[in-house]
Amino acid sequence: MNPKQLKETLEAYYYATGINLFMIDEQGKILETCGGMPTLCTHLTPASKEGCHCTQVHLFASKQAEKIGEGYVFHCPAGLIHYTAPVIYNRVLRGALIAGPILLDEPDDMILEGIMRKYDLQEQDRESVRKYIEDIPIVMPEKVKYLSKLLFLVTLSLMDQDRFVLYERNQRMHQQSHINLSLQDMKEEEKSHSHYPYEKEKELMTKVKNGDEVGAKTILNDILGHIFFTSGGNMEVMKARTLELTSLLSRAAVEGGGALDKIFGLNYKFIGQLSKIENIEDLSYWILKVLDRFMENVFSLAHSKNAELIKTVLSYINKNYMNNITLEEVSGIVYLNPSYFSTIFKKETGVPFSTYLNKVRIQESKQLLKDINLSILDIALAVGFEDQSYYSKVFKKITGTTPKEYRDHYQF
């Protein structure tokens, strides 16, 4: 690692936040510091330092951060809050940046007395420890996670391709957490989950066609939970059911506007990878990456320089389509002039902003039309249209039929 780059990185974080920062290597040795002394143990008497476990705690926290692929908040042996972000090279932990200590509230005598007792300190150490505690920055609890995230982003700047390894680990961790929650729900309500969730499949296709990446991943993980729960641990059965999901996703991507040849080419490639998968976690992540690639091709965003901007906008629209959102409002979330944003949006998606918004609303309304207890007016208002007449007009323009005809014809 470039020593100059490392020093500049630590200084930038320290002067921006006022929080001490230091770097450790894979053995826990402190290599570089910025700010005050990195640990309380530095202020203790030699006899007290013999019981210091800072190195072990720093390494444990750094390994946890590496495992989950994001910042990790922890307490040092003295009970003071720190947070860390891992530095990896060739997929191996080579060190970490650690920030702290910080306090969540004004220090009091309880903290001081607790440290004095824990380390069996002498009275001569009291003032030194008190001064150390009084100099610790106080951070509001809600800001801690953002400071930790900022440190993680700063740490990524020190790495090259290995940053994508951490991104993958973070995705895997969040996905498995979601699937585990779904499995737990199914165990608690086993009878109600005995049938395959075909309705969720339809919702998934709608999300893919609308470019709703977040919504699609949430539903996909719910379906995976059901597949794993009902497959009795049989890996071949789980692969077969997941392969069926791949076909579903590819069809939805094509219907959403993805190029047929590209989608089918990806399908062939992914199927070739499936035979090599041997565990549930890899299978789960495999289908998640399939979804990512298919959705990139719905609006041909794979090589777009505006891909992240468009994804942000699509996510916002899919979360707020039921409200009276405007071009000005949406362009504001990506800090662009409405006219310029309109040009970029049409160039990247192939349709004007208003057309895409109406498409999302109509797709979502199709799900609501399955409920015969809802009137056409109720549905129009629920998806963001101001009146039934305009809703029906847009519905027919997009689908070729009226909402009533669609409801009557479709066999729910």
TrEMBL record:
Keyword Phosphoprotein listed: no
Superkingdom of source: Bacteria
Pfam families: HTH_18, PocR
SUPFAM superfamilies from the UniProt entry: Homeodomain-like
Gene Ontology MF terms: DNA-binding transcription factor activity; sequence-specific DNA binding
Keyword Chaperone: no
Residues covered by the HTH araC/xylS-type domain: 311-409
UniProt keyword terms in alphabetical order: DNA-binding, Transcription, Transcription regulation
InterPro entries: Homeodomain-like_sf, HTH_AraC, HTH_AraC-typ_CS, PocR_dom, Tscrpt_reg_AraC-type_HTH
This protein's name: HTH araC/xylS-type domain-containing protein
Organism: Geosporobacter ferrireducens
